[in-house]
Design goal:
globular, 7-stranded mixed beta sheet, two-stranded antiparallel sheet, about 180 residues, Rossmann fold, alpha/beta
Length: about 180
């Protein structure tokens, strides 16, 4: 069974994070919601507080097939400020392991040089942060092991893309049908 970690910092965009968690869990992926703080409750950009499965210190990075960064301007800034998480993003990238980001969070990949020569997308107005990328307006861009998505309105697309990569396209289609998803 595949296993991913979705990282939460104060100011995260609730739908971007939780829709991906939901779709992936429906697909049979083991998902850890991970706080980058020492406590397990994290407040989102619209004052929705969610209980996490683990703190950063409890995360089992060797067990994960993918690391996922939700957006939200403040949430993205807080994720990027976490040195331990950035070290793991860099390590996963160098090892060819999956990393994904949505909304403002692909800017983190741009700042780290991860997007050079890749197709990538993000929330409108953050395109200048996708340093070296071929920027698109697609809902999701998959470039080898780097996945980006545009925002809250594409969160289901991102979740289904992750499902397709880790569980196969048939499973992703089944999950899409079960939630009455139409694209």
């Amino acid at each position: 069974m595949s296993r991913i970690a979705v990282f939460f910092a104060e100011g995260y965009e609730e739908i971007e994070a939780l829709a991906v968690v939901d779709i992936c869990r429906r697909s049979g992926i083991c998902v850890d919601m991970v706080s980058v703080y020492g406590q397990k409750q994290v407040k989102g950009s619209h004052n929705v507080t969610v209980e996490m499965d683990k703190t950063f210190e409890e995360a089992e990075f060797d067990a994960y097939d993918m690391l996922v960064l939700p957006g939200g301007k403040l949430g993205t800034e807080n994720l990027e400020a976490h040195e331990g998480l950035m070290a793991q993003i860099d390590a996963f990238y160098r090892a060819g392991r999956y990393i994904a980001a949505i909304c403002a969070a692909p800017s983190i990949f741009g700042h780290r040089g991860i997007l050079k020569g890749r197709k990538a997308c993000c929330y409108p107005t953050f395109e200048s942060h996708l340093e070296g990328a071929q920027v698109t307006e697609g809902p999701v861009e998959i470039s080898d092991h780097v996945i980006t998505s545009r925002g809250m309105g594409t969160a289901l697309d991102l979740g289904l893309a992750i499902s397709g990569l880790l569980c196969g396209q048939e499973k992703a289609r089944d999950v899409a049908a079960s939630i009455v998803y139409r694209r």
